[in-house]
Amino acid sequence: MTWSRMTVLRDGVRLECRDRPGPGPSVVLLHGLAGHAGEWDGTARWLSPRHRVVAVDQRGHGASERRPGDVSRAAYVEDAVAVITRSGTGPVILVGQSLGGHTAMLTAAARPDLVRALVLVEAGPGGPNPGVPADIGAWLDSWPVPFPSVESAAAFLGGGPVGRGWAEGLERREDGWWPRFDRDVMVASLRENAERAFWQEWDALRCPTLVVLAEKGIIGAEEAEEMCRRQPRAVAVGVPGAGHDVHLERPDALRQAMSAFLDSLG
Predict the structure, then answer these.
(1) 4-126+196-264, what's its fold?
(2) 201 and which of 28, 109, 159, 208 could share a cystine (Cβ 3.0–4.6 Å)?
């Protein structure tokens, strides 16, 4: 089964989604910062025999609105609400990685009526870290764009399945391969996360929640322990040896964790 396209317009911002039919309940997939909906293709194929799957190019990313005027956390959340509402299939299983996981968490806290269950991949409440926007900006500045080929981009972006996953989000122009996002939009999208933690939103969750953490990821042991202490219904699963892009590097481990979690929902 192949993807169809779904376009959602919200407050003048165009959101492009990949829609894969299935029997339901629906699963909505949110990628991380500087990512793209195609990162979830393998996961979508695995899910589709049992679920309808919608993968979103979030604002500022991929085929969606490239330079939206608002990149606040609230704007990302309202986008997710609009996509879920447009899907028209009732409460969904909301899955997100990194910044997409943070958006998923905030959406589930704000609109519990729309989220049946939550899967956070390398995402959590976080905490103040003022240096993050500058660090991300410097990393994006280091990209030697345009890349002469997808293969060279994949090698630069980490090689293996992680590098390929990132490189597949590039667009081809006459002079080479370019990111489908703008640096300033990416940096601005992180501003609120750098300023504060979101424990109040974490505490507000009322749905079953799976937290998938990579051994070499960005969620420290102290934060993970606090997450489980404050949300007894949350289940945390670690992936040994994996890095932050565990959904690309170890999709087998992610699917194993998700399979047990989805089965538990009944």
Answers:
(1) Rossmann fold (3.40.50)
(2) 109
